[in-house]
Amino acid sequence: MSYETIRLELAENVATLTLNRPDRLNALTPQLFAETMAAIDEAVTNGARALILTGEGRAFCSGADLTARGETGLPEDLGPIVDECYNPLALKLANLDIPVVTAINGLAAGAGCSYALSGDISVMARSAYLLLAFVNIGLVPDGGASWMVAKAVGRVKALEMALLGERLMAEDALAAGLVTRVVDDEKVLEEATAIARKLAAGPTQAIGRIRKQIAAALTATLPETLQIERDNQSASGKTEDFKESIAAFAEKRPPVFKGR
Q: Looking at residue 73, what is its pLDDT?
């Protein structure tokens, strides 16, 4: 399938989805949302076992395209476009059965910050920054930013970021626990790809359960979490990958996981 606002590449079971509107700092439009959703489905259908999300050029994503007109412009009532575009993408990324790695190659602002933080592993360029810019234009965080930031850094830091709308540079984002690694700018995609390949070569079903299990634990009670762990362990123990790991242990060799 051909796309106009994104680029999709699949190699070694890793799908790399690049937001590709560099002239607009990869700003979000309904077309970009639709193509991103379709590309994720295409990647999974074609056997991807890990997904990288990144941006073309000097930005990861600058958030909503505020200056576009016509079909891609913002409506007067923003509720429906959040329902139709922003929330479905946040939920699709959260509900995937494969891991998500974000390669934050440049600024990630507004909803672009939300999606940058949606990765299970986030690799950030040293010169990049996060910006909950919503308050600067009279809006509130969306795309899941309120949940992801508050869960990662707590109430006080989340309010500072959301109320002041100031840049949070990469090293500070790392110290706050918002991203996983900070690397030199030219190494971002290389590092993200190495991580994604490791994940893609792993026990995919267990990895898929782990990412959802951790998310559930953020709001579940201990008894609820224990039950989730029990059910996921039961299912994981029946996979071919678990059987392969037992055989590999007995044969003193590395396991070869197939994702089954």
A: 56
Q: Does a structural domain hold residue 209?
A: yes
Rg (alpha carbons) of the chain, rounded to whole number? 19
Q: What is the CATH number of the domain that holds 223?
A: 1.10.12
Instruction: Check if the beta carbon of residue 13 is closer than 8 Å to that of residue 50.
Output: yes
Q: H helices of 201-239, where?
A: 204-217, 222-236
Task: Single out the residue of 179, 192, 110, 173 nearest to residue 145, CA to CA.
Answer: 110
- pLDDT (tens digit, 9 = 90+) per residue, 68-116? 545 445 677 889 899 999 999 999 999 999 999 999 999 999 999 999 9
Question: Which residues form the domain of 217?
Answer: 204-250
Please check whether residues 147 and 243 belong to one and the same domain: no
- Dmax (CA) of the chain: 64
Number of domains in the chain: 2
Residue 15: strand pairing partners: 10, 51
What is the token pair recorded at 41? 């489905």
> Are 103 and 49 in the same domain?
yes
Distance (Å, rounded) from C-alpha 35 to C-alpha 24? 17
- Phi and psi, residue 209, nearest 5°: -70, -35
